[in-house]
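ugh ok so i messed up the first submission bc i forgot one of the chains. this is the corrected input, ALL of the components this time, i swear. 478 residues overall. if the numbers dont match what u have on ur side tell me asap before i send this to the collaborators (the ones from the other lab, u know who)
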Amino acid sequence: MAQVELTRHLFKFFPQLEGQRLEVEATTIAEVIAGLEKLAPGFAFYICDELGRLRTHVNIFIEEERIADRHRLSDPIGPKARVFILQALSGG
Amino acid sequence: MDTKILVGTRKGSFCVEKADGTWRPRLAGHLGQGVNFLCREPASGTWWAALGHGHWGAKLSRSKDEGHTWQDAPQIKYPEGAKYLAPPMPDESGDAPGPVITRPATLLKLWMIAFGAPGQIHVGTIPGGLFSSHDGGESFSLNRPLWNHESRGGDLFSGTGTGKTDWFGTPAADGEFAPGIHSIVVDPRDPKRILVAVSTAGVLETTDGGQTWRGKNRGLLNDYLPNPAAEWGHDPHYVEQSLGQPEHLWQQNHAGVFYSSNGGEQWARVSQPENGVHFGFPIAVDAKDGRTAWVVPGKADSERTTVGGGLFVARTTDGGQHWQPLRKGLPQEHAYDVVYRHALSNHGDFLAFGSTTGNLYVSEDRGDSWQSVAHNLPPIYSVRFG
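and heres the new structure output, hopefully the right one now
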């Protein structure tokens, strides 16, 4: 089970996720997003575009490593990995 | 209907109402979020907002209680296989990618919302898709005949198209350079007749509910083309009709103000640069008299701010032969308000417009006099009576 932590900004749109321990059965980041979409319909389109690519100003980390595959979200995750979904600080 | 003014801004939705003789704004949701367009659906009373989240993408939002609570609407998404032709961008490889490149379409911006018959909702987007709902907004689909229009490069869903596009881009695409549909004009007599305006391409019309489209650009002049009267390549900033006389169409174009008294079959440039009426973004048309229109002029495209630091609205009542500057109540010095294309609106004798400096101005006498009813709003993107 991956343990997912979200930026608090996302709770504004998906209050049902706030204050929960978010654990998702997943072996890749794509599966994490799919799992969160089940918990909160509409979530995936906030994180990814129509093509399933990570939005430009969104970052996902596995532990402290930024994911490498922003197009297909194929980065593998271990059984107890912590996954962070955050807005990118894009400068300014 | 109480007169409400719905204001979409860079940092939220606002509603301005008159109470005890005073116009008062209230925050009506989406605090901190970009609201490109905010309007009321006449048939249902639902408020619709076209949001532009900086990080999370473009989202459609709706409220059934006049902005007290909002929910995400079913979202607009480009279908699988949607592609468009775009000018090649310089890249670091040094390899010339060819005259045009094919790009996959993803939603960059929700720009404008319009309503047809009850239950029909149309949304203009960047990169140049018209999405329509026929079930009150429960689902939206891309209008493929317009997307596949020959002017755009043909059908890229099923083939390679023509390899040539007459649709170029707008910097309003938030970091990208892609075409955008910012004007959707539905004929109130016949909701199957719809005009759309594209930056940068021109005006297109359907008379069969979106199955076929044709250009309506005769008479437009683009001074930035080798042939100013070319069929395509025009930059309408905003197109509007007279609700009571829909054959009377107006457009504030990058290259002047244009008027058509025959449904867009022929446009005539009616701006008067010598009187300061030429460049601008929005335009409003009287619902009863199609010869009457209002613009908020800016000083040339090289400056894009007020003429001489004084803000004014110009009104014509004779199809653009004469323009009257209306300045009473508007700041006449040190004012550099810029008014975006969706930020001027009218309803009966009322007019309202908002600026990127967060000022909202209202007239109750067809523009003869104005009052500033809010001074410190976020940059204003849209103003609509609701």
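quick check: Residues 29-39 of chain A form the longest helix (11 residues). that seems consistent at least. The helical segments of chain A are 9-13, 29-39, 43-47.
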